[in-house]
Design a protein that fits this description.
Split_barrel_FMN-bd; Pyridoxamine 5'-phosphate oxidase family protein; 6-stranded antiparallel barrel; alpha+beta; 7 strands; Pnp Oxidase, Chain A; Pyridox_Oxase-rel; single chain
């Protein structure tokens, strides 16, 4: 845990994944050509991977064109916070057994729209930091 003399602590990959599993909203970053796009998504962590649902549209099209993604989640409280960045490979689930398994995950969207597609992100690198916040 950071203290006032070391306000930033680098997290292990396991610590970062454990913290990711405590949140439900993250930002998916994709780059197609030279244009980055950022999408807020509700997600869950399961078996070391991140999963989210998506409707048809730009997000799925961009993932099909460029499956290398970055995923970022932050959390802040009164005196402490953390930030985690996951780099990985995204793919839309297409096999019935994978889709059925994903249906069992606690994936709830904040927006009441139909999202029939499941996307899995397999992390290739996970970086996280915990911070002491100076709110004074």
């Amino acid at each position: 845990m950071p203290d006032q003399t070391t306000p930033v602590t680098v997290l292990t990959e396991q610590e970062a994944m454990n913290l990711l599993s405590t949140e439900r909203l993250g930002r998916l970053i994709v780059v197609v050509g030279d244009q980055p796009d950022i999408f807020p998504v509700n997600y869950v962590v399961h078996d070391g991977k991140l999963f989210f649902r998506s409707a048809e549209g730009d997000k799925l099209t961009e993932l099909a064109l460029e499956p290398s993604v970055t995923f970022q989640v932050d959390h802040a409280e009164a005196t402490a916070g953390w930030s985690i960045v996951v780099r990985g490979i995204a793919r839309t689930l297409v096999r019935f057994d994978e889709i059925n398994a994903a249906e069992e995950l606690d994936l709830k969207s904040w927006i009441p729209t139909e999202k029939y597609n499941f996307v899995e992100i397999r992390p290739t690198a996970v970086h996280g930091r915990r911070f002491v916040l100076d709110r004074g």
